[in-house]
Design brief:
The complex is a heterodimer. By secondary structure, chain A is mainly alpha-helical. Chain A is built from three helices and no strands. Classes of the chains: A mainly alpha, B mainly alpha.
Chain lengths: ~50, ~240
């Protein structure tokens, strides 16, 4: 795929609009790592050093 | 998430291709002009959906089981403009489920408090979509599409968007309290509230010109600063 075509695809899917939801999703992940209770959550808590 | 939103946007463009072609604001998009073919867009939608399901499958069982539900919600949005003025809220909900989905990705279960954040993001995005829709009011009238500005007019729509954003801030306050988050989270809510107020100060019923790049930038800051302050709050929270 040419660079121009990739740019057209990124434009079609408004890639830059990821800025709206992505930080909220990351916040959700951080809250889960800190306050989630499952083994996966505890593991992420360890990795994040909390 | 990249898979989900790529599939959603691509599907949205496919569903709207005839409307986009007819609307001067959107006639230059890739599908109406033929820069990308419908076949390509379908293949891209399918591949992006597969990426989402595969990624969810690698995470945990609940994420995998809910991944088709997420796709259904995202694809549903594309058609809501045709029958309900609540389409703004459905769009908001498409983004609103992302923090809850991220919680599920990490924890493998859902915490009810994440529904508060889901509602906050839904109303935030729904509110600014109402503002954006003020630009399309004439086209929506001609094409028979449903929107809050078309139903209530621009002046009242601005008040509806303001009300939605007031509730957004109230929900963030509730969320910070429900997790008993330390002070950086409260500063974050105050910053979001201030930026929302600034956003509304940019728009007047008789002047939508500033509904442009500046508006996009403010929304970007809202999202990024929220992450920054709430990330800091999580980091300094006592065990």
């Amino acid at each position: 795929m040419s660079a121009r075509r990739i740019r057209t695809v990124l434009e079609m899917i408004k890639f830059e609009h990821s800025i709206f939801a992505l930080p909220f999703a990351l916040t959700g992940a951080l809250l889960a790592a800190r306050y989630g209770t499952s083994p996966a959550g505890l593991l992420c808590g360890k990795f994040s050093g909390s | 998430m990249v898979g989900a939103r790529s599939a959603a946007m691509s599907m949205n463009r496919i569903a709207d291709v005839d409307y986009d072609r007819a609307n001067p604001r959107t006639a230059g998009r890739a599908l109406p002009t033929g820069a990308l073919s419908m076949g390509f867009a379908w293949a891209f939608t399918l591949a992006s959906s597969a990426v989402l399901v595969l990624a969810a499958w690698q995470l945990n069982r609940l994420a995998f089981e809910l991944s088709p539900v997420a796709l259904a919600i995202l694809f549903l949005y594309s058609y809501t403009k045709r029958f309900t003025i609540l389409s703004h809220l459905v769009l908001g909900f498409c983004l609103g489920i992302s923090p809850a989905a991220a919680w599920i990705a990490v924890a493998g279960s859902l915490d009810a408090r994440m529904l508060i954040l889901c509602a906050a993001v839904t109303l935030w995005v729904g509110g600014f979509d109402v503002l954006y829709a003020c630009q399309d009011i004439d086209f929506d009238r001609a094409a028979g599409l449903y929107s809050i500005p078309k139903r209530f007019g621009i002046a009242r729509s601005l008040w509806i968007a303001r009300a939605m954003h007031v509730v957004t801030v109230a929900l963030l306050v509730w969320l910070a309290a429900s997790f008993a988050l330390p002070w950086p989270a409260w500063v974050g809510v105050a910053v979001v509230a201030a930026l929302l107020a600034y956003e509304h100060s940019l728009v007047r019923a008789n002047d939508l010109r500033r509904l442009n790049a500046a508006f996009f930038t403010v929304n970007g800051y809202i999202s990024l600063l929220f992450l920054l302050f709430w990330g800091a709050a999580v980091a300094v929270a006592r065990r």
